[in-house]
Design brief:
Methylamine Dehydrogenase, Chain H; 2 domains; four-stranded antiparallel beta sheet; mainly beta
Length: about 400
Amino acid sequence: MTAFREWVRRVRLALPLPLRLMLAAVACYVMPLGMVPLAHTRQGVPEWRPVSAWAGGDTVLLVRTVTYDDVHRLYAIGASSGLWVSDDQGEHWLRSDRGLLHDWTGGVDVVDLAIHPANGNEIYALIASSPARPRPMLYWSQNGGQTWEPRGSLGPRRLHAIGFSPSGEDLYMVTANDVMRAFVQDLGRRHFFRGPQDEERALVASLGSRQRASTLVAVPNDAVGQQVGGARKVSAPITLYVGTLGDGLRVLNGDGDVLSLQESPDADTQYVRQHAMVHVVCYCNVSSILYVGTDQGVYASKDGGGTWYHTAYELRDRAVYALLIDPDTQNLYAGVADGGIYASVDDGATWQHLGVGLGHASVFSLAMDHGQDVLYAGTDRGLWGLSRVETSSAQLR
């Protein structure tokens, strides 16, 4: 340090006095400007904070929340540690794997999770199974994940996604080739199969996809209107959206009628419906806009999935793994694979980076605890939370 100071002193003495004065004036002007971004990130900008008590490993693949009977429950899935549950905003966690299929390392690989929207005690989980030694992949819990039992009637079928309808009345599942709907028997128990005769009863539609399904979302038709894609009348109360990893998005009603692609579609529509890597589907009940997160950014549809357009430029050519709409503010949030979370207050027309603290963490899942006003993010750097009070449109940067 002494040698450095001596060098600075010699350089300063070697410069003419007018030049020294000019450099000093420039420094007085530039230094405060350089400090503005630093001060700005610490004052008035939302700050993500790690959920410090999280014990499920560095990579959090899925986060879900549910509120019922004054219980605000948080579920998080670690990449190899399985399913964890917290009832106090992440301050304490219980591992929820009793009865689930463990792999040879003792971990639990959860493929997907479906929680009844009005009853957090009823949960269905898809657990990965080795193709070389197939085992039942569907499990259910009647006590909020404290214990699990397999639903073995599906046998070795490969299961890829599962989800409830918004009311919780119907439960849908995507296998390697088909979309299926559970029927209710035995004092409220849901079944996909009880015997060979049930195959036709449970089958909704065949996908005809060469690629694995990635996500399943059910939307009530009274929200999207009676004209889906402007193509035909829809009689079923539900429209299903099934994303695939390379074959685009399948759109079908609850009776299994598939919405066909219009002749000579535009490039965006053709990409979403036939070629996209669809990681997530999200629907806004207020604006009636449907969104998908793909390897090329976020696309939107205003006609129930008939036609699509690319949203704003900030997320183009970036893989979007997570999408979430705040039902109170209608803010749209997107989790990006190459780092960070973005927010839109204008239906995806523009995007702004949301908050500080996450750095370049890959974001795999987003969830909102509406009762506690906390936005959660599952990343490759653990589980993070952000107070919704901090995310007003005036503070988004």
